[in-house]
Amino acid sequence: MSQAALIVASSEQSVNAGAEIIRAGGNVIDAAIAAAFATAAGEPSITSLAGGGVMIHRDAERGSVEVYDLFSNAPGLGEAPRAVDFTGIDIYFPEGDATQTFHIGRGAAAVPGTLGGLCSVLRARGRLELGDVLAPAIRCLEEGIEVRDYQVVCFRYLEGILRLSRLGREKFFDEHGNLLKVGGTFSNPVLAETLRALGARGSEEIDAWLAEKIDRPVLDEFGPAAGGRITARDIESWKPEFRAPLEFGFSQAKLFTNPVPSFGGPSIRHTLDLLEEAGAAETAASSPARYEKLAAVFRSVSELRAEDPRIFDRGDARALFSARLRRNLDSAGAGEKGPPEPQAPGSTAHISVIDGAGNAAGITLSHGEGNGSEIPGTGILMNNFLGEEDLFPAGLGNFVPGERLSTMMAPTIIEHPCGAVSVLGSGGANRIRTAISQVVCGLVLDGLQPPEAVAQGRIHVENGVLSSESFAIDDCPAKLSGALRHARELEEFNEPGLFFGGVHVAHRKADGTLAGGGDFRRNGIVAEVG
Predict the structure, then answer these.
(1) In terms of domains, do 139 and 223 share one?
(2) CB atoms closer than 10 angstroms to residue 122
(3) Which domain range does residue 230 map to?
(4) Which residues pair with 505 in a beta bridge?
(5) Calpha distance 137→199 (Å, rounded)
(6) Do 459 and 516 fall into the same domain?
(7) How far apart are CA 134 and CA 233, in angstroms?
């Protein structure tokens, strides 16, 4: 008999895949990986199997937490291309009424980690066979899904990039060249066949199959001869990293999240440390005083990260953040204005799974915005991580070949003092750190249930701009008058959108019952099994 479990994600395809696998006797790892593969149908423009990801896993019986780093490596080991295919494309984002330049082309691709990484984690920590875990995604990709509002919103953001590849034109547009609309059908039978062939391999055959059917086409299409940077040495040197999590306390809870080389987990850790120092626990949820504390802390973390992109590697980081917070609490104004904040919503998917025993898994996935090309013959769009400004605060091109790229992805587990357990994570580019921190405050400081913690109006402070969900904050902007001491201008969002992340929470209460919070900003869906 399967263990009662709960799955939270942004599409019916992912939550249904996870639920199906739990019913089949799979564990939370099996369910999370099945849901991750199903994003290829439910969130096909937000992520792809040629991107990267991070998974966190809590084993309740062992009382342990692990992080599985499936993110990309920077390429460039060995042969260099004569000319790099790397170009900018302007994308308009109506949420911020802004145009942002993304960098795409074959030279924007980093070494992909999602597909091989998911297979490795399943082999090491899963219970079911790969073919069984892939079955729900294969069925959705082959039969097609009915396009809903959320998919259309995501398609529209990236329309300019989706048009560049043959795969994109065939799958995201109708026969007249118009972007798919609500009620249309999205399918990808080529990818379904790729996954079916993969799932038919025995565990000892998977690596050889990936080398022949995935790695070889990647080298042909994104190697130096084609204007890309990925070499055979790059692919050979990539592997999933099984890491000890970044562990720290907040109030009376214990948190586990993505460690270095991530800057997402450390950002959240320092944010929560500073919120304790600032006395956030003494303020009420969604109060003017709480928003003022949040703004001061967000400003402090943003400023120091902009001034020193390697701040999280420093042994004195805690003291530096504390000193900056004290300075900011004592002074008005927002300091020197930095470069414009990226307005992109963050092309990232997150899935949270928990069972009645407190086993939990959270996985965050991305391929950037895609680089305008596909891996030939596979049905898989390629990442553009080297063109993502969010990943390179010191400037594009500032990477070391062979090193793991840093990321803001930060799937997180909370062990509450009462015995409850939460797993959560978010998309949202630079807003990941502030979105997760605000939901953690709701869960830990305020004792809110997951839906209430997720629904609170959020703010974000960066480069002198206080962005606010005015639609969800009563008496705005008056309620933010104190918070505005830490910004030069207020940017109000008057309706929900992807900008402020999408924090999906799966929660096991102390009595073993389950509760979920699916973020309405990213079509959050909660499914309970058993």
Answers:
(1) yes
(2) 24
(3) 15-57+70-240+366-391
(4) 424, 517
(5) 11
(6) yes
(7) 29
Each residue of 10-51: pLDDT tens digit? 999 999 999 999 999 999 999 999 999 999 999 999 999 999
Assess contact for 195 and 132: CB atoms under 8 A: no
Q: What share of the chain is helix, strand, coil (3-state, %, to 5)?
A: 40, 20, 40
pTM for this predicted structure: 0.95
Q: How many helices (H) and strands (E) does the chain have?
A: 16, 22
Omega of the bond leading into 477 within 30 degrees of 0 (cis)? yes
Cα–chain-centroid distance for residue 33? 15
The per-residue b/e assignment along 450-479, b for 16 or more CB within 10 angstroms, e otherwise, is bbebbbbbbbbbbbbbbbbbbebbeebeeb
Place of tokens 């984002």: 93
At 472, list the tokens: 């969800």
Are 525 and 1 contacting, i.e. CB atoms less than 8 angstroms apart? no
Number of domains in the chain: 2
Question: What single-letter amino acid sits at 160?
Answer: G
Single-letter residue type at 514: L
Mean pLDDT of 384-395: 86
Tens digits of per-residue pLDDT, 269-327?
999 999 999 999 999 999 999 999 999 999 999 999 889 988 988 899 999 999 999 99
Strand partners, 168: none
Residues carrying an active site annotation: 348
Q: Is the pLDDT of residue 98 over 90?
A: no
How many whole angstroms separate alpha carbon 202 and alpha carbon 229?
32
Residues 6 or more apart from 15 whose CB is under 8 A from it?
Answer: 7, 8, 9, 35, 525, 526, 527
Instruction: Report which of 471, 474, 351, 348 is spatially closest to residue 409, judged by C-alpha positions.
Output: 348
Max Cα separation, the chain? 63
Report strand pairing: 185-186 vs 459-462: unpaired
Q: Contacts for 304-309 with beta carbons within 8 Å, 24 or more apart?
A: 305/263, 305/267, 305/393, 306/338, 306/393, 306/463, 309/393, 309/394
Residues 227, 270, single domain; the answer is no
pLDDT in the model for residue 395: 82
